[in-house]
Amino acid sequence: xxxxxxxxxxxxxxxxxxxxxxxxxxxxxxxxxxxxxxxxxxxxxxxxxxxxxxxxxxxxxxxxxxxxxxxxxxxxxxxxxxxxxxxxxxxxxxxxxxxxxxxxxxxxxxxxxxxxxxxxxxxxxxxxxxxxxxxxxxxxxxxxxxxxxxxxxxxxxxxxxxxxxxxxxxxxxxxxxxxxxxxxxxxxxxxxxxxxxxxxxxxxxxxxxxxxxxxxxxxxxxxxxxxxxxxxxxxxxxxxxxxxxxxxxxxxxxxxxxxxxxxxxxxxxxxxxxxxxxxxxxxxxxxxxxxxxxxxxxxxxxxxxxxxxxxxxxxxxxxxxxxxxxxxxxxxxxxxxxxxxxxxxxxxxxxxxxxxxxxxxxxxxxxxxxxxxxxxxxxxxxxxxxxxxxxxxxxxxxxxxxxxxxxxxxxxxxxxxxxxxxxxxxxxxxxxxxxxxxxxxxxxxxxxxxxxxxxxxxxxxxxxxxxxxxxxxxxxxxxxxxxxxxxxxxxxxxxxxxxxxxxxxxxxxxxxxxxxxxxxxxxxxxxxxxxxxxxxxxxxxxxxxxxxxxxxxxxxxxxxxxxxxxxxxxxxxxxxxxxxxxxxxxxxxxxxxxxxxxxxxxxxxxxxxxxxxxxxxxxxxxxxxxxxxxxxxxxxxxxxxxxx
Length: 644
What we know:
Layout: H1 5-15, E1 20-26, E2 29-34, H2 35-52, E3 59-63, H3 68-79, E4 83-87, H4 93-102, E5 107-110, H5 113-122, E6 131-134, E7 148-150, H6 151-164, H7 168-175, E8 181-186, E9 196-200, H8 201-214, E10 222-224, H9 232-245, E11 248-251, H10 258-265, E12 269-272, H11 274-290, H12 293-314, H13 321-342, E13 349-352, H14 359-367, E14 372-376, E15 386-387, E16 400-401, E17 406-409, E18 414-418, E19 425-426, H15 430-436, E20 443-451, E21 457-462, E22 467-468, E23 474-475, H16 477-485, E24 490-496, E25 503-509, H17 511-520, H18 528-532, H19 535-553, E26 563-568, H20 588-594, H21 596-603, E27 608-616, E28 622-633
Parallel strand pairs: 1-11, 3-4, 3-5, 5-6, 6-7, 10-11, 12-13, 13-14, 25-26
Antiparallel strand pairs: 1-2, 8-9, 9-19, 14-15, 15-16, 17-18, 18-20, 20-21, 22-23, 24-25, 26-28, 27-28
Helix pairs in contact: 1-2, 1-3, 2-3, 2-6, 4-5, 8-9, 11-17, 12-13, 12-14
């Protein structure tokens, strides 16, 4: 069906005006906004923006957390034929300069004082930024910057214009065509400047509907919108699919209340990148470490059973009557309460996307009865390329191509995709567009993988990251890192080894998990840097590494990728320091350059290395962190021969 986002909004408002479209938690109370109320808000905002001078085809930046008014502003811009450009709310001011200038942005929506301050700071570098509208007025009473005004004032002006021009809004909505540009998303920029990915109403809604059909989504779903709106995954799940299906989107009060809000809402449809699932599992393991001996023994016994039979049960396979009965008892005593504690009691389908998830982490959630599945896609493909059908879920694949998707594997192992969801172009960057999109419509994903005998796609790593050790054996760093991050004590890992004679790793400890572990052992520490360099912590991380090495020894292709030497970094990898993208992906090349002295020490056989690192604090100040880092060896294991 050919349509646009604003048309879908008006259809829902006409068909079920009193049904809840969104809920927002404010001062601890959930407030509902109906489809009719949302449509009226969008009309008033669109009329106000039109009066203010927003033109068809112009870009409008929106920066903030998930809020009904942010969604309404995006819809209002689209209703006028303008193009919303969501930016990451945790990006530092300097990171906003390129997108705003690249897209020639004159109008911006800012959620609160923090975002307003950020935009005002860069205004001298973005002189065309004429109008900034803010939602939350707290702290902004005495601001008198030109072009800065409250969204309430825009709504009031829009309401007045709409009353005087009753047919204007509908006429503007009717002018839009499915192939008009609907939104632009800036890539995370793991290598160089971010690129503006241009999508139309057709591409985004086609993929939203393909995903909805695949999992039989209806207007009865409940979704918690807590990821950054600038991430295309959040935008597809909580914006495109929201309007395609008409379900309810719930906005948490703040980032600190997400876990509480998750339990209160009990979503039926849930999505998160692997890092969120890692964090949830870490919190579970910390609590279990603090539990009594009986409770820990019960948890361990039933989790062993869950890992053995849970995934098979989840996939509808036959298991013995005794195991089925024991699992039912485990569900009553352990798995059910655990799902409830995580907020997953009502989840019908949960997805992880954004990057590969560790197989052990994936198996844990399926073992306790959560229908966690993987999907494969990217910003350029409007997310949905491959999805895992129920009862065909495996940790080592990302599923089968979904509706109307074609997949080819190039001679070098790179995955090529042809889909109705492909980007129109990279904005003002025809060279980059031509590099990834062929004349006959194939998109170069940059990922290495293959289709297995069952037609499921298996991703090995980013094509540029898959390398070879000096002896010719395969080196897939992301695979190794994911296995390491399954352990609750390891928050991040960076594996190195391409063209070298062995694999080495730099590790970030999880401060909460390791801190809890240290406190139970009466091990004193004075902050992250001190804790990270404790001999006891090194022994803990060494044990995790050696377990991964033992596991890798069982894989003939990756046995050579066992980690030989490692160190624990003195600071957490941080997006503000350029080490991670805003979607928390490791910027491997940047880290290798920044910590070159540590890489040299790892491969040079040294036992310790002094380093001083510049860091940015949350309040914008700069400083440095220094330490002498220990470097240790990890035990490796002979490769296990495959059975004849």
